[in-house]
Amino acid sequence: MRRIFVTGASGFIGSHLVKYLSEKGYDVAGLIHSYKHSKWLEAALANCTLFRGDIEDFLTVKTTLNDWNPDCIIHLAAKSIVKRAYKDPVGTCLTNIMGTVNVLEACRNLGIKRVVVQSTDKVYGDTLDATIISPVRPTEPYGTSKCCVDLLAQTYMDTYGLKVVISRMCNAYGYDISDRIIPNTIRKCLQNESPVIFSGDSSKRQYIYVMDGCAALEFLAIEPWVKGIFNIATPDVLSQEEIVLKVLEFFPGIAPKYVDSPKIKQIKSQSMSCTAPAYWKPKVGIKEGIKLTIAEFKKWGF
Fold this sequence. Notes:
Elements: E1 3-7, H1 12-23, E2 27-32, H2 39-44, E3 49-52, H3 58-68, E4 72-75, H4 82-87, H5 89-110, E5 114-120, H6 141-160, E6 163-169, E7 171-173, H7 181-190, E8 196-199, E9 204-209, H8 210-222, E10 228-232, E11 237-239, H9 240-248, E12 257-260, H10 286-300
Parallel strand pairs: 1-2, 1-4, 2-3, 4-5, 5-6, 6-10, 7-9, 8-12
Antiparallel strand pairs: 9-11
């Protein structure tokens, strides 16, 4: 298997994935909608064949996949920022749910058998050490949309015989321009500003360095015997305060600023038991991952 198509190729995980796959010698193409040009994206997408289009448009998806004829699709395109999904549940569902239907249906029509669909740990809601047989009980619009994505992928696997792999991945971090805790904290520190810690927020999340996530997606895509649902997870489960303090270990002259927690509904604590095949293991722990991410911000800008 040499030809891999990535939807959402200009997104956070997508841009790292196409760069990773290209450097490993795969023939990579990607679907992109719109993005802001940057040194990082120019480097990440340099060896990727790019197609522009909207994942919500079935004809665009089908025509693009027919033209390029991939061996496998890794479907990442989504509205994935939880806080934005609160403000735009309709747009989130249109992109995440109908975009996935379009990819799966195009694969069924074109005879493309292998699809990796990116789900999320958010489908489990407030659950610690979730396994793939734990109940799905999302607590907010993003998680709910991804729960629908997850079930759609299972339906196409069971009903139409597609070789679908569902990756329920924990919170990826790395070089990222989006509004997430680790990049936000690093950007503040690099500008010699105090990062924020929310007082009284004891909620915990599970983290994976983005390149470990890319390696997991590669494995799920290329191994012909792999199908079904997998939790992609690590031992790194930390609170918001712990994450900020981990970053501040690399900026000893900066102190955090404690503020009241925002009044929004959120998952309290969440983690998964990793059920990825034994051939894949995370290689980068949280301290090393933060160090690598800081270096990437210094290289690519913030």
